[in-house]
Design goal:
two-stranded antiparallel ribbon, DNA-binding, mainly alpha, 2 strands, homodimer, 2 domains
DNA sequence: TGTAACCACTTGCGCAATGCAAGTGCTCGC
DNA sequence: GCGAGCACTTGCATTGCGCAAGTGGTTACA
């Protein structure tokens, strides 16, 4: 996503920052998968992102203010990536993308369970999730409800169902 | 957007269809600008899309069921592109993209007026707009309210304000 | 009836982005 | 001290993007 500056249209500007095949995948994995380091993002990537592409996207997303990077106090060579408030506000967008894909593409059953919950929960759920992300990434107080836990539990249940 | 089939995740599938810098721009212009032919899309493109890229995107979007193409009864060499129901259901997604871009990028004032209206109107406005698109593109009955007209009027008012 | 403009693309070519595989240099555990 | 882990980087081939020019049919007008 080079800064091309094609026009001042808000949709275009969003596409200039996020309109490629990997940026939102990386944000999705940090957001819904809680992958916080380069290694986790690389090894557990559902889509098999290449290492150089991942490095490039982490750099770009950090540069344009969607991610922050800090050293891990436990492992001196590890870096922890966190979402910024701007990235957290992509939750409704990703929820809509998931809903659209669920309806108009052919998603796998297990992977669309979370999309279904997100769609059914609507804005109330998204806001609760965003509060939780602010806790996990920005140091805000822990909210009462853990949407992340709910999504994860539903996903694992679907996985178990398939394994049987 | 080649069909890469990286994973069955709905977000990934949506990105595989629409995750590039031009596909959603084309849909935006058809949807909000009512550009219905190749020539209109090319000449009035705010971002200056290249002719071969436009041809390619129209072909792809038609192939994957987001657009339909039919001859213009008035001009034998003209083709009219229409949105399908799947594309019309991208309205909330584009509205969120516009809202995010308006908040987190630096949009031009005139071009963000429509985004502001879309955001303030919320799902009720989006649904009214989708009904109108079904009239314009799918032959459904004309709804009472013309969101398209409202958006256009606000945009032109903003343009006039700038011209002064 | 000729001709100029219009229309929907296509082609050629240089450059940038993508993707794979391998490599680098530091750090941690033992 | 040494192998495994970590966060990237590098080289190279393939693919996609973007500009400019071209193509072949159609319409409008003199």
């Amino acid at each position: 996503m080079p800064q091309t500056g094609r026009s001042g249209c808000p949709i275009n500007l969003t596409l200039e920052q996020l309109g490629d095949r990997w940026s939102l995948i990386v944000i999705r994995d940090i957001m819904f998968g809680n992958r916080r380091s380069y290694g986790e993002l690389l090894a557990q990537s559902e889509e098999g992102i290449a290492s150089n592409i991942l490095a490039d996207r982490l750099k770009r997303l950090t540069a344009c203010g969607l991610l922050t990077r800090r050293p891990d106090p436990e492992h001196r060579q590890k870096r922890i990536y966190s979402l910024t408030e701007a990235a957290i506000q992509l939750v409704p967008l990703l929820a809509h993308m998931a809903a659209w894909g669920r309806r108009h593409a052919r998603p796998s059953k297990e992977l669309s369970v979370r999309a279904e919950l997100l769609e059914k929960g609507g804005p109330a759920l998204w806001n609760a999730f965003m509060d939780e992300l602010r806790h996990l990434h920005l140091g805000a107080p822990r909210p009462a409800r853990s949407v992340f836990g709910e999504l994860q539990a539903a996903y694992e249940k679907a996985l178990a169902r398939r394994a049987r």
